[in-house]
Amino acid sequence: MGEQAGTDVGRPVVIAHRGASAVRPEHTLGAFRQAIRDGADAIECDVRMTRDGHLVCVHDRSVDRTSDGHGLVSRHTLEELRALDWSGPHSEVGHTAATEDDRRLVTLVEAAELVSAADRPVGLVVETKHPSRFGPHVDVEVARVLRQAGLGGLSEGRVPSAVVLSFWPASLRRIGIQLPQVARGQLIAAAVPGTSRRALAPGVSVAALDLGLLRRHPELVARHHARGHRVFVWTVNDAADLRRCRDLGVDAVITDDPGSAVALWGGRR
For residue range 33-56, what is the model confidence (pLDDT) as tens digits? Predict the structure, then answer.
């Protein structure tokens, strides 16, 4: 992933959480395009598998909250999901004039194409959602899509072309078998007792810390850097927390509002 962990003196890498989800409906084409326009170094997406085997960028198990449909993602075909309006009435972000991009579901293939087509280097951060009825097939397909898009190899600089995150060590292990050079990160939540003291899964190079955990245990940044790990922190939206992450030497922040984070630190490099 470029320089040694913790040595860069600039601002943290800015990763757009589900795209620019503070201002556009999460995981939509509008949110991803907005994040790139706003100067995000990378976009982050959760992926789930459709009934007919496609990976789509959706956080929840069901479509109810973020679209005008109902039911589990895994019970829908890609065609059925594309027919839904993803700027729907249950979105956490209110939009009075949703654009066509705000209504559009994005597949992982399309997200990979979007970052590849950007006029500057933009990374793709993918979270695998488990447990899933499709089990290891999700991880195999993530690796296939990244490989086909030319993402996930060794990269220069601070922003890797792709990172795969998961709470599930088995998922990260399978990704590593399928795509050995891709950067992998273990998500560590404050709500799970004891997780901050556990070692990362073998081969995992990124510790992705819950912001609540960082607030309680800021020493974790230096601890992971001493072990050669990168440190990502989620979800960082408040200016004070963004500054705290920078001062602690955090490598990347995952934020709903990448434009504000970039502006706080004086724009893109």
Answer: 999 999 999 999 999 999 999 999
| CB-based contact 156:2 (threshold 8 Å) | yes
Model pTM score: 0.92
Plot region of 121 (φ>0 → left; ψ -120 to 50 → alpha; else → beta): beta
The span from the CA of 58 to the CA of 252, in Å, is 22
Domains of the chain: 13-62+108-264 (3.20.20.190)
| Angle, CA 150 vertex, CA 204 and CA 249 arms, to 5° | 40
Within 8 A by CB and 6+ apart from 69, the residues are: 63, 76, 80, 81, 84, 88
Cβ atoms of 11 and 265 within 8 Å: the answer is yes
pLDDT tens track for 89-109: 544 555 447 899 999 999 999
Catalytic residues: 17, 59
Q: State the angle between helix axes of 108-116 and 29-37 in degrees (0 to 180), rounded to the nearest 10.
A: 20
